[in-house]
């Protein structure tokens, strides 16, 4: 019984890794979702931009009105962080329309980084106070 579970787990990990490679090679990365906003969906298209920068084309769907979250917020902010020890950088506020969808297109000089979205009191905050609601990693 234990051996069967190990084989199933190994097959799942291999399949997930293969799927991740296919997604990465196409330049589209799905975002992981927090249990606090389970309906939210996000994907990011990354590509090499001019001057060796990284272009970010972020799309989200089903992201709740930030004022209806607990605690309520005013904006969603998109952050990059070069590594776990680096300070997160605010790269823009994400506007969510009446259909609960939003986009953000920007560029960063980073080549490898974590990208995440949090709900904040302002789009101008310099440090995240909210928990990550959607996130992904990018490595060029």
CATH class of the largest domain: Mainly Beta
List the secondary-structure elements in sequence, H or E. HEEEEEEEEE
Question: How far apart, in Å, are the first and last alpha carbons?
Answer: 40 Å
Largest sheet: 5 strands, antiparallel
Mean pLDDT: 83
Structural class: alpha+beta
CATH architecture of the largest domain: Sandwich
Number of helices: 1
Overall radius of gyration: 17 Å
Percentage of residues in strands: 35-45%
Tally of domains: 2
- What is the topology, as strand order, of the major beta sheet? 2-9-8-5-6
Helix percent reads 10-25%
Number of strands: 9
CATH topology of the largest domain: Immunoglobulin-like
Shape: globular
Describe the model:
- With 140 residues, the protein is an alpha+beta fold.
- The chain has two domains: 1-27; 31-139, Immunoglobulin-like, CATH 2.60.40.
- It is built from one helix and nine strands; from the N terminus they run H-E-E-E-E-E-E-E-E-E.
- The protein has one helix at 2-25; strands spanning 28-30, 32-33, 41-48, 54-61, 75-81, 89-94, 102-108, 112-120, 134-139.
- Strands 2-9-8-5-6 form a five-stranded antiparallel beta sheet, with no helix packed on it.
- The longest helix has 24 residues, at 2-25.
- It is globular.
- It starts with a helix and ends with a strand.
- Residues 1-25 have low confidence and may be disordered.
């Amino acid at each position: 019984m234990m051996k069967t579970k190990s084989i199933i787990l190994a097959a799942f990990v291999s399949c997930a890794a293969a799927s991740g490679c296919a997604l990465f090679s196409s330049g589209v990365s799905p975002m992981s979702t927090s249990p606090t906003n389970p309906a939210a969906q996000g994907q990011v298209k990354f590509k090499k931009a001019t001057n060796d920068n990284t272009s970010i084309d972020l799309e989200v769907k089903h992201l709740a009105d930030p004022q209806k979250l607990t605690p309520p917020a005013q904006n969603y902010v998109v952050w990059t962080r070069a590594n776990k020890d680096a300070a997160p950088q605010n790269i823009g506020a994400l506007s969510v329309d009446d259909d609960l969808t939003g986009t953000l297109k920007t560029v960063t000089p980073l080549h490898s980084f974590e990208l995440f979205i949090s709900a904040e009191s302002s789009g101008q905050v310099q440090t995240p106070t909210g928990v990550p609601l959607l996130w992904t990693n990018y490595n060029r």
